[in-house]
């Protein structure tokens, strides 16, 4: 079925994940996707991405560290003929080379 951008935007709560270093000790993960504008050259949407959760470190049942954790980034669609394939980056121009990922939306509710 075709990708429906409006179904993709909004809040998504983490159900399950693959282990990755930047989410170590984070629980209650949530991602919020909102339309923030359009690329002036291609006309493709630019999506604001806010990932959040609670970073908590426990040892022996005792909480040593507990803080809210937030990462802000943006998603772009490099090829509008495949709108469900996005590139998401976090950080600034320099950091985005190290914190960029390809996201392929397979289905939405």
Explain what this protein looks like in three dimensions:
With 109 residues, this protein is mainly β. The protein is built from two helices and six strands; from the N terminus they run αβββββαβ. It has helices at 5-8, 93-96, and strands at residues 10-13, 26-38, 45-59, 62-76, 85-90, 100-104. It has a six-stranded antiparallel β-sheet. β2 (26-38) and β3 (45-59) form a beta hairpin. The two termini are 12 Å apart.
Fraction of residues in helix: under 10%
Radius of gyration: 16 Å
Rounded to the nearest angstrom, the distance between the terminal CA atoms is 12 Å
Overall 3D shape? elongated
Uncertain segments:
none
**Beta-sheet strand percentage?**
over 45%
N-to-C SSE string, H for helix and E for strand: HEEEEEHE
Count of alpha/pi helices: 2
> What summary fits the major beta sheet?
6 strands, antiparallel
With strands numbered from the N-terminus, the spatial order across the biggest sheet is: 1-2-3-4-5-6
Structural class: mainly beta
Task: Give the tags.
mainly beta; elongated; 109 residues; 6 strands; 2 helices; single chain; six-stranded antiparallel beta sheet
Q: Briefly, what is this?
A:
With 109 residues, the chain is mostly beta strands.
List the helices and strands and how they pair.
Elements: H1 5-8, E1 10-13, E2 26-38, E3 45-59, E4 62-76, E5 85-90, H2 93-96, E6 100-104
Antiparallel strand pairs: 1-2, 2-3, 3-4, 4-5, 5-6
